[in-house]
Design brief:
122 residues; mainly alpha; 434 Repressor (Amino-terminal Domain); 2 domains; 0% strand; elongated
């Protein structure tokens, strides 16, 4: 097994090609072990080179609402009315601590994301 660190795009491309070849390897085989190691290396390289920041609170909220097919009226029922929900979603009003707690408990969005600061559109 000749595995080396991924240092550049060429190494990354080679590792991805090798992963593709090994993709159907059976568990508890040397090929499967090699596959797991390569996936770990590629993941580390990609996380370092192409980090993805957490979304801002409103983007996260909209994404979860979309995933769960929720409308602003549904959010309004959680946080105190449809007009308040519309203001939040349109970035006219900030989330309060009580809203953050309710959204976290009900929709499962991380409080680390919900407490992040974001700009209002005034």
């Amino acid at each position: 097994m000749n595995i080396q660190p991924i240092k550049n795009k060429k190494d990354h491309s080679k590792a991805l090609s090798e992963i593709e070849k090994l993709w159907d390897a059976k568990k508890n085989t040397p090929d499967y072990d090699k596959l797991e190691i390569l996936i770990t290396l590629v993941d580390a390289y990609e996380n370092k080179r192409y980090p993805i920041d957490d979304p801002d609170p409103i983007s996260a909220l909209k994404s979860v609402m979309d995933d769960k097919n929720l409308k602003s009226v549904d959010l309004g029922n959680l946080i105190g009315g449809r007009s308040r929900a519309t203001e939040i979603l349109n970035r006219k009003r900030k989330l309060t601590l009580e809203m953050i707690r309710t959204i976290h408990q009900t929709l499962g969005i991380s409080t680390d994301i919900l407490i992040k600061d974001y700009k209002l559109k005034i």
